[in-house]
Amino acid sequence: MTTIQLDLDALEHELRRDPEFALHSRYLTTKIRVVIGESQSFQIVLRDGAIDKVDPVVTPFDAYDIQLAGTEEHWAFLLASMPPAFYQDFYPAMVHHGFRIEGDMETIMAYYPGLRRLGDIFRTVATAGVTA
Question: 8-124 — its CATH code?
Answer without folding.
Answer: 3.30.1050.10
